[in-house]
Structures are given as structure tokens and as C-alpha cells.
């Protein structure tokens, strides 16, 4: 997960609260593919605790689910009025037009991240959300989200070397590349191209080609950095982003049970 206090560099966390299936599987999924750090939360009390730790986050609340309208208003006003969470940007995302609600939340409650209505043409809602996120500088200065994987046992890489595969442990990964370490140093040479790298991300297996960018010493380990080539399959990028979101979500869920 992005580090607390580094929102200007690493961007802001984006939470969808009580999203519908369409919002979660299509709208939020597209924002993940646009390199936003997205979380799905279905417990408003839990989210209040999360926001106190990450007070520069953005929340898109689906007011069609989870609570009554009066409870939603009270919850939103509570977040905005609490000094610990007053910096949170809140937006509404819902499935129906209601001009009275829209006027209330934008004009009276004064939410800062818009009132987005999801209709049959999802591209309109996605474009509106992306405009809101751009205005909020939600990405910060980073271009790509990166997941650290050091605590995971099923995140590995196989390099084809001299007719066999050498297995290593992935330390972190993005759609640009990854870093890894080996039990026995294979002495990878800088700028070497590997065309059949096998990457296992939990239950997901992908193949890609990459170039050894360099290495560094971390304690007693030698860490290699590998960059994917421009020929990487777009579907591989899609799957890596899905994995990164799952990685972030798992860490957030374990931190706030």
C-alpha cells in the first residue's frame, strides 16, 4: 500500500463504499486499470477507522445500498465534520437521478468529489470519476502502482537459464517490472534479455519478456531489478494490475478487521 503521509508522491487511496456489482466489477475495475489505488469496502464503521489513518483519501459512496438516506447523510457529515477525517474527499455514486438529493449533497452538505450517476453507458460515469480524480491529484507524482510481495510465499519468478529454469522470489511488482532475489545468485548480467520469464502471482501464472536493469545489495541478499519490454501483452498488464489491487485489498482488510 502507499505509505501514509506521502500522498503527494504516491497518490491517494480511493475507496468505493458499498458499491453495486456493476460499480465494483466495471467502474472500479476500470480505475484499477488506470493505475489508481482502489479499495472495496462494505462496512461504513470500518471505513471510518481506515480514514482516520489515511485522512487524505477519497471515498465514493453508493448511497443506494448499505444505509438509509438519512443514515448516509449523517455518516457523510460525520466524516466531514470530524477533525481527524475532514481532509477526506467524499463523492456520491448512485444508479438513479434524484435532483433533490444532488442539490442537497452538492449545495448543502458540500461534498467535494461530485455526484456521479451510473447509467447504461458506463463510460460517462468513468470519465466523470477520472476528471474528479485528476482534479484531486489522486495519483500524485507516481505513474504506476507497485505492490510489495515479500511476505507472500506464492509470488515467484522462473528465469530460463542454460536450458533450465532458475526460481526466485519476487519482492515487488508493477506493470513496468519487478525486483526479485534468489537463494543462490544466478549472476544475471545487466541488459540481458529474457524472453520466457514465468511469473506466479498467487494462483495467477503469466509469461513475459524482460531485461535485467541492474541489481542492489539489501542486507545479505542481492536484489535484481527486471523491466518488462514494450512487447508485453496488454492482457498481462491487465492481470498484473488486478493482482496489485488484490494485494492492496488483502493488506487493508488484514489491518482493519
UniProtKB/TrEMBL annotation:
Domain of life where this protein originates: Bacteria
Protein name: Uncharacterized protein
Source organism of the structure: Leadbettera azotonutricia (strain ATCC BAA-888 / DSM 13862 / ZAS-9)
Lineage: Bacteria, Pseudomonadati, Spirochaetota, Spirochaetia, Spirochaetales
Amino acid at each position: 500500500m502507499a505509505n501514509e503521509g506521502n500522498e503527494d508522491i504516491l497518490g491517494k487511496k480511493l475507496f468505493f463504499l458499498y458499491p453495486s456489482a456493476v460499480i465494483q466489477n466495471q467502474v472500479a475495475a476500470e480505475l484499477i486499470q488506470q493505475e489508481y489505488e482502489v479499495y472495496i469496502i462494505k462496512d461504513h464503521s470500518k471505513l471510518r477507522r481506515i480514514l482516520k489513518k489515511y485522512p487524505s483519501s477519497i471515498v465514493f459512496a453508493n448511497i443506494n445500498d448499505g444505509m438509509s438516506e438519512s443514515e448516509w447523510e449523517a455518516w457523510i457529515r460525520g466524516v466531514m465534520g470530524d477533525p481527524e477525517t475532514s481532509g477526506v474527499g467524499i463523492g456520491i455514486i448512485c444508479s438513479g437521478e434524484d435532483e433533490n438529493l444532488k442539490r442537497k449533497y452538492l449545495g448543502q452538505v458540500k461534498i467535494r468529489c461530485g455526484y456521479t450517476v451510473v447509467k447504461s453507458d458506463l463510460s460517462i460515469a468513468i470519465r466523470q470519476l477520472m476528471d474528479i480524480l485528476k482534479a484531486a491529484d489522486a495519483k500524485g507524482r507516481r505513474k504506476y502502482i507497485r505492490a510489495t510481495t515479500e511476505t507472500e510465499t506464492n509470488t515467484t519468478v522462473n528465469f530460463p537459464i542454460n536450458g533450465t529454469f532458475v526460481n526466485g522470489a519476487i519482492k515487488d511488482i508493477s506493470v513496468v517490472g519487478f525486483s526479485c532475489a534468489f537463494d543462490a545468485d544466478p549472476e544475471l548480467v545487466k541488459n540481458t534479455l529474457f524472453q520466457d520469464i514465468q511469473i506466479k502471482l498467487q494462483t495467477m501464472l503469466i509469461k513475459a519478456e524482460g531485461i535485467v536493469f541492474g541489481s542492489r545489495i539489501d542486507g545479505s541478499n542481492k536484489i535484481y531489478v527486471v523491466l518488462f519490454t514494450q512487447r508485453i501483452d496488454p492482457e498481462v498488464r491487465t492481470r498484473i494490475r488486478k493482482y496489485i489491487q488484490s494485494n492492496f485489498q488483502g493488506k487493508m482488510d488484514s489491518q482493519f478487521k
